[in-house]
Design goal:
Blueprint lengths: L10 E2 L8 E2 L10 E2 L7 E2 L34 E3 L7 E3 H15 L9 H9 L15 H7 L27 E3 L7 E3 L18
Antiparallel strand pairs: 1-2, 3-4, 5-6, 7-8
């Protein structure tokens, strides 16, 4: 490995005539790029692709993700959105965001451009997992997507209990028209069978 000097470097620069090899974990330290799409090409620091967009950060520009200062020009570690040319970020920061949001939601954190931004980041060696965003895998989302389905009246009169609900009649379950977080059977709140909306005491 031309970075650490140890053996077992399985990745070789794609450039014809270049024999530099490196370990994948050594790539960032050596300024190397591996493209995680297509032919999965890898490049050493000398032959790696560079952003073609003409842009330079203004003085005191900070990374949109970590809010720390970025370099004074484009570099291996300082990147810019090719679409808006205003979003500057560190390579490490945009890589962490890519791992978090996944392929389907990855976009510029400033202008929200998707296609140009995604293709540029892939070309520049940002790895994008093909999966849902990490927040859509959490169990919390399951609870948020469930509809409230019980009677919250102080005294539930339904013979089938608080969880029972019928399509029509006195045991039809109405949800609060403002928050939808509480419910009642029509009879439990002394509502007529024709009542179509109800508001809980909290609202």
């Amino acid at each position: 490995c031309f970075v650490c000097g140890e053996s077992g470097a399985a990745i070789t620069c794609r450039e014809t005539g270049c024999d530099r090899s490196f370990h994948l974990p050594c790539a960032v330290e050596g300024g190397c790029i591996t493209q995680f799409f297509g032919f999965y090409r890898s490049f050493c620091w000398e032959h790696r692709p560079e952003q073609a967009v003409e842009a330079a950060p203004a003085e005191n520009t900070t990374c949109l993700i970590c809010l720390d200062p970025v370099g004074d020009r484009k570099s291996y570690s300082t990147m810019v959105c090719p679409a808006c040319k205003h979003a500057w970020f560190h390579r490490g920061c945009i890589q962490k965001q890519a791992i978090h949001v996944g392929f389907s939601c990855f976009c510029c954190p400033h202008c929200q451009n998707e296609y140009r931004f995604l293709m540029e980041m892939l070309t520049m060696g940002i790895r994008l997992p093909r999966r849902l965003p990490s927040w859509e895998n959490s169990h919390a989302d399951v609870a948020l997507s469930e509809r409230h389905s019980r009677c919250d009246a102080s005294e539930c009169l339904c013979p089938g209990g608080r969880e029972q609900a019928e399509e029509e009649g006195p045991w039809h379950l109405l949800l609060c028209c403002s928050c939808a977080a509480e419910g009642t059977h029509r009879r439990c709140s002394c509502l007529t069978n024709s009542t179509a909306s109800w508001e809980c005491d909290s609202c």
